[in-house]
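Minutes, project huddle
Topic: does the predicted pose make sense with FE2/S2 (inorganic) cluster bound?
PN asked that the exact inputs be recorded in the minutes so nobody has to dig through chat later. Recorded below.
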Amino acid sequence: MASQAASINEAGSGMTRREFLYYIWGSSIVLLTAQTIGLTVWFLIPRFREGEFGGRFILPIESLPEQNAPPENFADGRFWLSNLNTEQPNELMYQAPDEGPIIGAVAIYKVCTHLGCIYAWTPANDRFECPCHGSKYRLDGRRIEAPAPRTLDRFKMYALADDKSTVLAESQLSNNFFDPMKVPDGTAFLSIDTGDRKQGPSDPLLCDFTGTCP
Ligand code: FES
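Predicted holo structure (tokens), as shared on screen:
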């Protein structure tokens, strides 16, 4: 008699207990699916905006120094821009015996590979020097003197046309390190992706070739 009364009450409210549970279950599934989609989209959206470290920096081509000239400092992006050409006679970008020609632009991370100090270009000595423990690096970031354990890290670069979206060239990888990017004719902007950094290799010290290591 009691269950008969309950059924009548449920029927009177317009929804049975089973239907009610189905609605709860269905709503939970919809909510869970929405949460999953929302989280996926949130993870896919880049965390860094253009123009802040971790994101991309778009610079006019005029920002790139002349070939083998001292590097340009971009403090906000935490990188140096160098433009290299060992086939042109120069004093800053000399070629070591274990290297082929080095031609193109590089974006070099401003943090020393030893213990993370901020090094700087030293015009008097034509090289990067770290104030903390004395590591030295060439114009392209290759280490000259220890204690740096490896060459300076590099960011990925793109050469863009004047619409800022057509990619004319981009940094290529050799042994998981960005080669200098040859800048094609027609390049109007450079894009540096500070979210895409590769560690420099542990090449021999350049001072070993000249016998000038301290
Ligand atoms: S942190 Fe640069 S040499 Fe030690």
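Observations noted during the meeting:
- The CA atoms of residues 52 and 77 lie 7 Å apart.
- DSSP finds three helices and 13 strands in the chain.
No decisions taken; revisit at the next huddle.
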